[in-house]
Amino acid sequence: MLNAPVCDSLRFSFLTVLNMPAWPGGPCPDCGDDMPANLIRCVTCRALLNTDLVPSQIEYPEFVPLKEILAVTDCRVRGYLVPCPRCHEELRISHKLCDKKVACKFCSSHFELNLQRHVNVIEGIYATCPHCDESLRVARRFLKSKVACRFCQKAIQFVMPPGAELD
Predict the structure, then answer these.
(1) Cα 74 to Cα 57: distance, rounded to the nearest angstrom
(2) Which residues contact 34 (CB under 8 A, 6 or more apart)?
(3) DSSP summary character for residue 48
(4) Which pLDDT tens digit goes with each residue over 43-71?
(5) What is the separation of C-alpha 53 from the centre of its chain, rounded to a whole number of angstroms?
(6) Same domain, 54 and 77
(7) Under 8 Å CB-to-CB from 125, ≥6 apart: which residues?
(8) Distance CA 145, CA 156 (A)
(9) Domain that holds residue 153
């Protein structure tokens, strides 16, 4: 028996659960599938196997949507990281210079960067963090992601300039 003072109804329900017979095994009363001994619910239809058990009534609280804590700031892309077609050195080409002739600072060869034709050549982008004004080099795979600045750890999302799209 219990030593702590407990109300009679609680003691009765507690002792009833302890003395309740286990499922002996056999066919489920609802679906008829054969179930092994000592189960509470049928594996197939989830029905209670012991008729003495009553499913507990669960009250679900009203759904309250949470406010989004993480505020993400847009970070405008300033330019693109592309290899020189001749010497293969990485160059930073401003978005303003797209579709114009540019010269490689390493080998002085001239070429034109067209976003539609050379989209596979672009290795990444560069931008300035709007929080700490540090220059960021970003791989293409992070363009449509929310990321943290490596210097100030604040959340940013890179936004392509109007008319420019890297797919």
Answers:
(1) 47
(2) 25, 26, 27, 28
(3) B
(4) 889 888 877 777 665 465 787 876 666 78
(5) 40
(6) no
(7) 77, 78, 79, 80, 81, 138, 140, 143, 158, 166
(8) 9
(9) 73-159
Tell me the torsion sign for CA atoms 132, 133, 136, 142: positive
Rounded CA separation 50/63 (Å): 33
Q: Are residues 81 and 141 in the same domain?
A: yes
> Does a structural domain hold residue 165?
no
* CA-based end-to-end distance of the chain: 72
> Of 82, 84, 132, which Cα lies nearest the Cα of 104?
84
- Does 23 map to a domain? yes
Of the listed ranges 5-14, 29-38, 67-76, the least confidently predicted one is 5-14
Does 67 map to a domain? no
Residue type at 72 in one-letter notation? V
